[in-house]
Specification:
Elements lengths: L4 H7 L4 E6 L6 H9 L3 E5 L7 H14 L2 E5 L5 H9 L4 E4 L5 H9 L25 H11 L1 E6 L2 H5 L1 H5 L6 E4 L1 H7 L9 H16 L3 E6 L2 H10 L3 E6 H17 L4
Parallel strand pairs: 1-2, 1-8, 2-3, 3-4, 4-5, 5-6, 6-7, 7-8
Helix pairs in contact: 2-3
């Protein structure tokens, strides 16, 4: 089973950076992001329009390029999580988590027995065509799958202690857009109410030895949150990065005098 580089870096105490992938159905995107130096690509199947075949193609290329492919499922569903893992995702992002009991069940889908309830269906490509036993495959897969849980509401943060106490959570990921709405400060990502709330959450994560994370829209916000203690940081999307660079280039070109 290939190494999960993002998981290894987190375990070494490093901060990891990724980019969300929402719009372009091109497997070339993860190669590009890997070449740029990102640690992970965050394939969004909650708000993006990707089908399983696209996920499979993107994940395959990401793994070959050495960038960790993570899939955010549209809802907490056994089939959505396990099929993404079966086509090679190295981690699942669970959205809108608020109930410890449901989180415990969802986490069980990501591990093969006896650690969980995942059904065995890995094919040779996911093993790099190596011959190995079921026991070896199960141990490898269980040991290299990241479980990432999103905290996106006031209710989730109020239950943070209960949720983070559920065994098996690797990363606790703040969704600042929905959280800002829930806090009554929609889109105000540096509002003191949001910042103070998330900073308090980081301390809880550290107590439970869960890596705190956040998905933000630009490098300025990303750097601010790294300074505040975030260790798993998603910055922008493939679309916004392209648009920003295109706008920057055109502004520069229009400033050229004939």
């Amino acid at each position: 089973m290939p190494t999960n580089h993002t998981q290894s870096r987190l375990r070494d105490g490093q901060t990891v950076f990724g980019c969300i992938f929402q719009q372009f159905r091109s497997p070339e995107i993860p190669r590009l992001l890997a070449a740029a130096g990102f640690d992970f690509v965050f394939i969004d199947c909650e708000h993006g329009g990707f089908d399983l075949e696209t996920i499979q193609d993107v994940v395959r290329v990401a793994r070959l390029a050495g960038i960790t492919p993570l899939v955010r499922v549209g809802e907490l569903s056994y089939s959505l999580a396990t099929r993404a893992l079966d086509v090679g995702a190295q981690g699942i992002i669970l959205p809108r988590v608020e109930e410890p009991e449901l989180l415990h069940e969802a986490l069980s889908w990501m591990k093969f027995p006896p650690a969980g309830k995942r059904g065995f269906g890995l094919g040779p490509p996911m093993l790099d065509y190596r011959a190995q036993s079921f026991a070896e495959t199960i141990a490898d897969a269980n040991g290299t799958t990241l479980a990432i849980v999103q905290f996106e509401s006031v209710k989730a943060l109020e239950r943070a202690e209960e949720l983070l106490a559920v065994p098996g959570v690797d990363v606790a990921l703040i969704g600042p857009s929905d959280l800002s709405i829930s806090l009554g400060v929609p889109g105000e990502f540096e509002h003191p109410k949001l910042v103070d709330t998330v900073c308090a959450f980081i301390k809880v994560c550290n107590r439970y030895r869960v890596a705190p994370g956040i998905q933000v829209r630009n490098a300025t916000l990303a750097k601010a949150w790294v300074d505040r203690g975030m260790r798993f940081v998603g910055c922008g999307s493939e679309l916004t990065l392209l648009l920003a660079k295109a706008q920057e280039t055109m502004a520069e070109l229009r400033g050229v005098k004939n």
